[in-house]
Design a protein that fits this description.
Number of domains: 3
Number of helices: 12
Strand order of the largest sheet: 4-5-8-6-7
Distance between the termini: 55 Å
Largest sheet: 5 strands, antiparallel
CATH topology of the largest domain: Uridine Diphospho-n-acetylenolpyruvylglucosamine Reductase, domain 3
Order of helices and strands: EHEHEEEHHHHHHHEEEEEEHHH
Amino acid sequence: MNNMRLPKFSYHEPTSLGELLSIKQELKEECALLAGGTDLLPMLKRRNRIAAHVLNIKRIPELNTISFSEERGFHIGCAVTLRDVIDHPVVSEKYPLLAQAAGAVGFNQLRNMATLGGNVCLDNKCSYFNQSAFWWKSRPDCFKRGGDRCYVVKGGKECFSLSAADTVSALMVLDADLLIRGPGNERRIPVKDFYTGNGRKPHDLREEELVAAILIPPNGRGWKQGFLKKSARGSVDFSIASLSVRLKMNGPVVEDARIALNGVSTKPVRPIEAENYLKGKKIQYETVGHATETALKEIKPLSLIGCSAFFRRHVIRAMFEDLVSAVSRA
């Protein structure tokens, strides 16, 4: 019988960050963090994730705050919901890219529960891995389930699950950092360095650590930005590709550029050569076309989640040409 009930687990509700880190240090891989639960609970039901203990972090005030200053930019706690991000007046005014990306996640009810930190830490997705325990009884386990094979790339020697979080490309082009806390230690790393490309362990996060906050620097003058997501059924589906573009314009000339994609490979992609090519050039048809082809050479799209690599490349090409041109004219 296909049992999709939650498994039994011990429930913890710490009220301070110190208490949370102490419990997490003790339990390590035996615990899972619950914020919005929109990804964790389905994974527990499918037995894609095994956790004897679940730690609810929503009652920790430090993780639920969102603040802004002109000097330091944004500080967004990991348990702040996507709805709170979308509705924040400063986000809409100064970081519309982030509001657009958060609005592309799921549907309204999900955005009311899902958190920005949860989206940043979203586990990689795979059409095979994301099946029920009943489904997996009929076949050997894949790499992500502790087995010795990949069903996405036949004969593959590693896990090729897909990085799929919609807000990540936006945070990357906004030069955001992650504040990571552990017992007795704190570190700050750029969002782009948080993703390993390893489908089995996609995040640079130790067992006793958690992403405590997302830090976004002030948005300087002259920057224009835009976000675009393509999927089979709009925001309710994981993306074929999500693209964020941020250009610093001096009249018609690009002074600086940030480009990031997610939903295309085992980790988010920054096509650095394409960014460098755009610098110092006017946005014209030939310039955008060459930048697009340069970006595609840096991207290795996967055939996964209902989309072939061939089709994904053509979608990325169309998205890139449309968005770069639109952002430069904004």
